[in-house]
Structure formats: structure tokens, C-alpha cells
Design a protein that fits this description.
about 425 residues; alpha+beta; BirA Bifunctional Protein, domain 2; 2 domains; 8-stranded mixed β-sheet; 15 helices; about 30% helix; elongated
Length: about 425
């Protein structure tokens, strides 16, 4: 027996169909039993008439509960009264498992839903988000492979920090101390560009951030690239094109899911059609002062509040570049004309979703890197492998990291980034 997905059955439109799934909704009367069945492709209303079944079978149908699993054979036909315009009249059924009383109801709060995330994943909302998430991952792979990048992996256990020691997760590693979960692949990616030249990865990254905000996770997925012979503009161009490619793929493949999430596709299309504004850090300070009455001293990093106010001025991501050196990482290249700033950039998403890409041209001067590491109190010996890349055929290069969950949160217009990942991890949540 070949079972059709619900979407395939609706496409067929008429005739006999065999479908299977889980009870999404159910109601009944003395003569009829209505079941809204769901599977991974969608939902459809199924109706059983009492007169067509034995008393035993009818009692089984009457006793069906939410999330019970069932196989159904019946005749599909168009019916404008049903939720999707089609209905299946049940001829036969086979109950695979009658579910216990399902604990999730409409009145449950956010924390309850997160405590029961393993069940909440079945909701239409979470199903829609997870489908879009899958498309985003696929789009990243497609973009880089189409642009002749090689996929490359780096270790999760690392001995050096790249994004500041305050967010490192120390882990027990036999008798060794000073082993951490990866904040990024970067320091282990740069050595490979001297062989493969253009590389990318999608991998988990870990930041021990205590921030309890709607845009922070302690474990998230990172799409990163590193490229030899690259100028700063090359890095920014790839970042912009990748974002446009992701949005385009989601709109092409997930229009139904975006509708379930009530996302305005027109707002996403703007970011495909328009070129992203590129604004220097200095220009941002001037803009925020003039447009938002915010006086920010030069040399201060942009916080969430400044990023959000800046995003209100644009309907696409905005690229902020040439940040002060003192607020950026040791590996970012100094600007040749102004050594107080670096060739580093953040892509700030519209609608208040914050930074979605951070990237830079990498510093090629070994002495400058050593000086910055000393200023940050790092043990230079630990970075020998990294410094060697500047001794043997160093070339201009750069890269960026894109936060997958932040991009998903923006595309889906989610209230909280924790919705964008199956099982969110934060300073307060590590289960289920």
C-alpha cells in the first residue's frame, strides 16, 4: 500500500487515498466524527459516518485523542467548508496508538511550552519554523558551493579564544586545563585557506553569555566563510549576496509556512531587490545623533539599543564598517589610513533583529597580532600555530560568521530567537 502525504492527497483532489498521520483536532456528534489529520506536509479534515462502521469501530473513533497516530483509507473530495478546501470521507482506519491526554493547550505559557519543547515541536507554528530552518541551511550550502567554496570543518574542542575570554565554556578534557568549546572556527579555518583558498562551514558555536535577551543563545549554529586573496569589499559582497540568496530560497520554498507565521513577504522582498547601505561607524554616530537624539562617545561599541535605533532608519540590513580597533577582535586588520579603526563590519538586520553577520579582513602583520594578544593578556605560545600562517606565504584574506538562528528569527519575524532552534540553550535552560 502506498501512502500519500496530505499535500499529495490534496493535489490529487479526488478519488481514493491512503493517508496517515496524527490527530491534530477532533470533534464529533452522534452521527459524525471529524478528525483534522496532520503530517509533515500539512493538515486535512477527515469525516467518518457512524452508519459505515460497527459499534466497536465507532467507539474506537469516538475515543480518539489529540496526537493519536492513525492510518486512514477514504475518498477525497473538494469541500469549501473544510480548513484546506478538501475533505476525506473515511472508509477504513487503523489506530496505531491512542495517545494519552496531550498536555499542551492554548492557555499554556511560554516557559511551559519550553519545558515541553519535545511536544511543542509538533505544533503547526514550530513545524513551519523548522521547515524554514531547513531551507536556510540548504541555501547556505548551495550559495557557497555555487561560488566554488569547499566545505571544511574545524575542532569543537579548542585551546585558544577568538571572541573574548569572558564567553568561553571551559570543559574537562582528561587531565588538561585550558580547553574550551569553540566560539568560532576562524583560527582553525585560516590555516586551510593557504591550501583550499575558499572554504565555508555550518557548525555549532558556543558562547557563555549570561544575557537573558530575546536574541541570545549559548549554543547556536554558525555559517562561516574564509577566503584567500580577498579584499574587505569581497567579504562584504559575499555577506550581502548570501543573505539575499537565503531570503530568495525561503520565499520560493516556504510561502505556505510564511503564511502560517503571518510574515509579510513584501518586507522580505525589499532586501532582495535593494542594495544594502554601507555606513562607517563614524557616520552611524552622526546619524543616531541627528535622527534619534542619541549621543554616543567615539570608541564605544554599538549596543543592542543603538543597533535597534539604527535599524529603524532602514528597510534592509545595513552594513556598519570601520569600527574602533579597541572594541574589536585582535585579528581584524587596521585601516591603512586610520590605525584607530579596523576593516571589520557588522550587518544589522531591519525590524530590530540586531547583528546577523560579523566579518572582517584579517590582519596580516604578525607583530600587530602579537601586540594585540599581549594587550588582551593572552599566552602567545598558545597561538603559535596561528602566527605561523603569517610567516609562510601570507596573503590578504578575510571572512565572516552568520548567525543562523538570528537570520531565521528575522525572516520568520519571531518574538524570540529561542523559537528558531529545536531545543534552545541559554544561561538558564539546558533541558529538555
Amino acid at each position: 500500500m502506498k501512502y500519500l502525504s496530505i499535500k499529495e492527497a490534496i493535489k490529487k483532489g479526488k478519488g481514493n487515498v491512503d493517508i496517515r498521520g496524527w490527530v491534530y483536532r477532533e470533534r464529533g456528534s452522534n452521527k459524525f466524527k471529524f478528525i483534522v489529520l496532520r503530517d509533515s506536509s500539512g493538515i486535512i479534515q477527515c469525516v467518518a459516518k457512524k452508519e459505515n462502521f460497527s459499534e466497536k469501530q465507532w467507539n474506537e473513533l469516538k475515543a480518539l485523542t489529540i496526537e493519536s497516530s492513525i492510518k486512514i483509507t477514504g475518498k477525497i473530495k473538494e469541500d469549501k467548508r473544510s480548513p484546506v478546501g478538501y475533505e476525506v470521507e473515511i472508509n477504513k482506519f487503523n489506530i496505531i496508538q491512542k495517545a494519552d491526554a496531550f498536555p499542551i493547550a492554548k492557555d499554556k505559557g511560554i516557559e511551559f511550552l519550553r519545558d515541553n519543547r519535545h511536544l511543542w515541536l509538533r505544533s503547526r507554528r514550530m513545524t513551519a519554523i523548522m521547515k524554514i530552518r531547513s531551507t536556510v541551511f540548504g541555501a547556505v550550502h548551495e550559495y557557497f558551493r555555487k561560488n566554488s567554496f569547499y566545505e571544511y570543518q574545524s575542532p569543537i574542542f579548542q585551546s585558544v579564544q577568538c571572541e573574548g575570554g569572558s564567553t568561553l565554556f571551559n570543559v574537562p578534557y582528561f587531565k588538561e586545563k585550558g580547553v574550551f568549546l569553540a566560539q568560532t572556527w576562524q583560527l582553525y579555518a585560516e590555516p586551510e585557506i593557504f591550501a583550499l583558498e575558499k572554504i565555508y562551514t555550518i557548525a555549532p558555536s558556543f558562547r557563555a553569555e549570561k544575557s537573558q535577551t530575546s536574541r541570545h543563545l549559548t549554543e547556536y549554529w554558525h555559517a562561516e566563510m574564509e577566503m584567500a586573496w580577498a579584499s574587505f569589499d569581497d567579504i562584504l559582497n559575499h555577506g550581502e549576496e548570501l543573505i539575499k540568496y537565503i531570503i530568495k530560497k525561503v520565499i520560493e520554498k516556504n510561502s505556505e509556512e510564511l503564511e502560517i507565521l503571518q510574515r509579510d513577504i513584501k518586507k522580505l522582498n525589499i532586501s532582495i531587490k535593494k542594495k544594502f547601505p554601507r555606513i562607517s561607524y563614524d557616520e552611524v554616530l552622526k546619524l543616531l545623533k541627528e535622527k534619534k537624539n542619541m549621543k554616543i562617545p567615539w570608541g564605544k561599541d554599538l549596543r543592542t539599543v543603538e543597533e535597534d535605533k539604527l535599524s529603524e532608519l532602514y528597510d534592509t540590513p545595513v552594513i556598519v564598517y570601520n569600527y574602533p580597533k579597541k572594541v574589536k577582535a585582535f585579528y581584524m586588520k587596521e585601516d591603512e589610513k586610520n590605525p584607530k579603526v579596523v576593516h571589520g563590519a557588522d550587518f544589522i538586520a531591519p525590524e530590530g533583529y540586531g547583528e546577523i553577520i560579523g566579518g572582517s579582513e584579517r590582519e596580516s602583520d604578525e607583530k600587530k597580532i602579537i601586540q594585540r594578544l599581549k594587550e588582551e593578556g593572552e599566552n602567545i605560545k598558545e597561538y603559535k600555530f596561528y602566527l605561523d600562517t603569517r610567516k609562510y606565504g601570507s596573503v590578504p584574506h578575510g571572512g565572516f560568521g552568520l548567525g543562523i538562528e538570528r537570520v531565521i528569527a528575522w525572516i520568520c519575524k519571531l518574538d524570540d530567537i529561542k523559537e528558531s532552534i529545536p531545543f534552545p540553550r541559554t544561561a538558564r535552560r539546558w533541558t529538555p
